[in-house]
Amino acid sequence: MFKFVGRGGRKDYPMFKFVPLPQIATLIGMWVIPLVMSARNHWWRFIFIWLLISTVSGIISKKAMEKPISGSTPRLVYKWFLLIYKISYFTGIAGYVIMMATFMGLYLFFGVKPHVWMDCGILVRSQNLNMEKENNAFNPCSTS
After folding, report:
1. How far apart are CA 51 and CA 101, in angstroms?
2. pLDDT tens for residues 1-36?
3. Distance from the Cα of residue 101 to its chain's centroid
4. CA distance linking residue 53 with residue 92, whole number of Å
């Protein structure tokens, strides 16, 4: 918690939390490293989705930290992060099902090589994990 000295004397402002340097470094690394790797590999769709989610999360986080807070802001924050959670949940299950289908040999019915299915399952799971971590990192109401 930061302490400010103003005209009225010393005041505590609990809205400003102390964020440790390792947490900031982790947040920057989790945002920059996938972006750089995707640009290097020319994965433009991933970059577009990454920037879109980051921009909307940033705008909503900014609205959530405004003083005084608008009456519709809590509902907006809840809806956005619930949507991201549901998308993450669905893609996580989909990636897991694709990988399990590969292990059970379902690729034989479709005439596709197993590495194609496994690559798809791993890609979906890894994007899911990145989205979950970014959602948690940008969530202004998160306690972790």
Report:
1. 31
2. 444 444 444 445 454 456 677 777 877 887 888 889
3. 27
4. 17
CA distances from 136 to 1, 3, 87 (A): 21, 27, 14
Ramachandran bin of 5, using left for φ above 0, alpha for ψ from -120 to 50, beta for the remaining angles: beta
DSSP state string for 32-100: HHHHHHHHHTT-HHHHHHHHHHHHHHHHHHHHHT-SSPPTTHHHHHHHHHHHHHHHHHHHHHHHHHHHH
CA distance 14 to 91: 36
Q: Could you check whether the bond before residue 14 is cis, i.e. omega within 30 degrees of 0? A: no
Question: What's the rounded Cα separation, in Å, for the pair 39 and 102?
Answer: 29
Q: How far apart are the first and last CA of the chain?
A: 16
Provide the 10 A C-beta neighbour count for residue 138.
20
Q: What is the tens place of the pLDDT at every residue in 55-87?
A: 888 888 888 888 888 888 889 988 988 888 888
Q: How far is CA 84 from CA 7, 78, 91, 92, in A?
A: 43, 10, 11, 12
pLDDT in tens, 112-122: 888 888 888 88
Tokens 């992060």, residue? 81
